[in-house]
Amino acid sequence: MAVPVIDFSKINGEEREKTLSEIAKACEEWGFFQLVNHGIPLELLDKVKNLSSECYRTEREEAFKTSTPVKLLNELLQKNSGEKLENVDWEDNFTLLDHSENEWPCNTSVFKETMVEYRGEVRKLASKMMEVMDENLGLPKGYIKKAFNEGMEDGEETAFFGTKVSHYPPCPRPELVNGLRAHTDAGGVVLLFQDDEYDGLQVLKDGEWIDVQPLPNAIVINTGDQIEVLSNGRYKSAWHRVLAREKGNRRSIASFYNPSYKAAIGPPEMKTAEEEGSEKKKYPKYVFGDYMDVYANQKFMPKEPRFLAVKTL
Prior knowledge:
The chain is built from 9 helices and 14 strands. The protein has helices spanning 16-29, 42-64, 68-79, 111-137, 143-148, 225-230, 273-278, 288-298, 304-309, and strands at 5-7, 32-36, 85-89, 92-97, 160-168, 177-183, 189-194, 201-205, 208-211, 219-223, 240-243, 250-258, 264-265, 286-287. The strands form 3 sheets. It has a 7-stranded mixed sheet with strand order 1-2-10-7-12-5-4. It is globular and about 65 Å long. The model has no long low-confidence stretch (mean pLDDT 93).
């Protein structure tokens, strides 16, 4: 069993219907799939890969050696208790946000210019992917994007768009700590440019953890909790995790296209009484910021209680 790999270049050709069907099936059955021929220039991906690794090596690697997860693991090894670290991740990360380039932590030459360009390409791909989801779900074109951009004026997007640059350094005792604990993503569409050499990312499918195989220059797509709600459960946000590894420094660059904190999220309104009767709404309607307040405390806990705990509209 392998995570689906889809050639996105065929979305505008003779195989459009087949490609739409492949994406719909991946969203319904996996919540995870890999896109190849997605339109982001390969030269840009090479620059992103190399500069991110250089940034870690020159600016962050030394600090990780004295970080909380390293200290906690060393303490655990001294106790020799056989316990596992449950509430910490063996990960170094920082997040890049819109309109804050001057605050980005990396000083590596041309990193900022390169990541601004990359984020622009990923944002365009996110828009295309949301339109494909609209079409597959029978929603009006632009429905999901509009739902995420509550209060958008003059074309200025209000949706949250962040990019988390992570590294998972070699771990001396990977069986005792998580690279990243199992969770679903809170938001909308996640677009991941992962390491093409070192594995570790896994997705839960039918009760089994499946490797998301490294594939050079692919973009991994996964659907978050808000896509599950907007599809009224047809698309599921998938549980996933990262394993710590003894060898390799796995790179992961995940971009999140999420609703604005003021966006009202809920299942689509039914057009007719017949539709209302045939498919009940399975999720409440709420403000995304309120959902995030719940998620912040329940990220690594079962998903369904979050929808019951959030304040409804």
